[in-house]
Design goal:
This protein is α+β, with helices and mostly antiparallel strands. It has helices at about 15-35, 40-70, and strands at about 1-5, 10-15. Helix 1 packs antiparallel against helix 2.
């Protein structure tokens, strides 16, 4: 993992796919399991982040498929 500060409130994070998948899985567990110690506002922010992630992942898959002309694998 690599983390860089681009601007005071903007960071660039470089991860391996399995590291990102691990983080997203943990976020889904918290957002969906609704543990009482996590405020609802935090769970809503996680849900929004996951929606954005899912949308970007679909866009990435579509772009990759269009560029290679190959079907998505995995």
């Amino acid at each position: 993992m690599r983390l860089e500060r681009i601007r005071p409130t903007v960071l660039r994070l470089v991860l391996h796919a399995h590291e990102l998948a691990t983080l997203m899985t943990a976020a889904r567990c918290v957002a969906e399991a609704s543990p009482t110690e996590v405020p609802e506002s935090a769970r809503e922010e996680l849900r929004a982040l996951l929606r954005d992630y899912d949308q970007q992942l679909r866009r990435l898959d579509t772009t990759t498929n269009e560029e290679t002309g190959r079907p998505r694998t995995g």
